[in-house]
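PROTEIN DESIGN WORKSHEET
SECTION A - STRUCTURE
LENGTH: 265
TOKENS:
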């Protein structure tokens, strides 16, 4: 910010697959234009199904901007819902998936952070002051490990939304969070419905079943009448779940660690 006081920055996850580069670029350009008016802008994904794996954004009134015809105010951010609530969100047409993409003036991000996380803000500014100086390495080695680990959603976006400082640009581009097995299945199937994606050395007998099967054992796996199933078969453990609950595997991993079963991870 010392060099570019009015700089607008973007934050994007590294584990997302975007299949329509032009649509994505158009959304980012619109988001940058809205951010220049003094807003934190997120790109919201139009949901294709009720998912319990993502947080949701409730879109509000359309913004009166000639250069941003799709942008809307953000009413609120919603944590990952249960399946019934997710169905209501999708049916209402007012909610978008929160993909964790943010475009905003750096000055506004720091302003909100100073209000919500003053200690974190102070340490960030200490790092910024040391950048490019002789003390840079020493300050980073001392301060960086002490920074509070908190997502921008919680530290900045959600509090800012309550102040009317957040906007959303709805997106229709193909988007996958490849952090779970459901996304892998979707990518492997090319978006086809009723498709069983098979990865690994496995013998499969599938009768009216779809989803994804990943195996490292080479043994026979039979599936009968299962929709959106996820099976991961390894020599020392077997995982069976559904696409709708794929992101809950992360909770299972945490549970295995705390109960002393890290050997199967």
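SECTION B - SEQUENCE
RESIDUE ASSIGNMENT:
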């Amino acid at each position: 910010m010392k060099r570019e006081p009015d700089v607008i920055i973007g934050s994007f996850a590294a584990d997302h697959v975007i299949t329509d580069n032009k649509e994505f670029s158009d959304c980012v350009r619109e988001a940058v234009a809205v951010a220049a008016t003094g807003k934190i802008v997120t790109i919201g994904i139009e949901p294709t199904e009720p998912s319990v794996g993502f947080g949701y954004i409730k879109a509000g009134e359309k913004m009166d901007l000639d250069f941003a015809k799709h942008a809307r105010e953000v009413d609120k951010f919603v944590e990952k819902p249960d399946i019934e609530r997710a169905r209501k969100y999708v049916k209402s047409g007012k909610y978008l998936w929160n993909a964790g993409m943010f475009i905003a003036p750096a000055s506004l991000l720091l302003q909100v952070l100073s209000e919500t996380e003053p200690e974190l803000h102070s340490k960030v500014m200490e790092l910024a002051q040391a950048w490019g100086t002789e003390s840079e390495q020493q300050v980073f080695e001392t301060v960086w490990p002490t920074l509070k680990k908190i997502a921008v959603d919680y530290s900045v976006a959600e509090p800012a939304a309550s102040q009317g400082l957040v906007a959303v640009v709805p997106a229709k581009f193909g988007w996958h969070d490849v952090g779970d097995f459901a996304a892998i299945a979707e990518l492997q199937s090319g978006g086809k419905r009723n498709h069983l994606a098979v990865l690994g050395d496995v013998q499969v007998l599938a009768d009216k079943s779809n989803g994804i099967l990943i195996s490292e054992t080479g043994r026979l796996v039979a599936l009968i009448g299962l929709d959106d199933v996820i099976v991961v078969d390894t020599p020392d453990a077997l995982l069976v779940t559904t696409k709708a609950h794929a992101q809950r595997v992360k909770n299972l991993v945490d549970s295995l660690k705390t109960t002393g079963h890290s050997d199967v991870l």
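SECTION C - NOTES
DSSP finds eight helices and 14 strands in the chain.
The chain has a mean pLDDT of 90.
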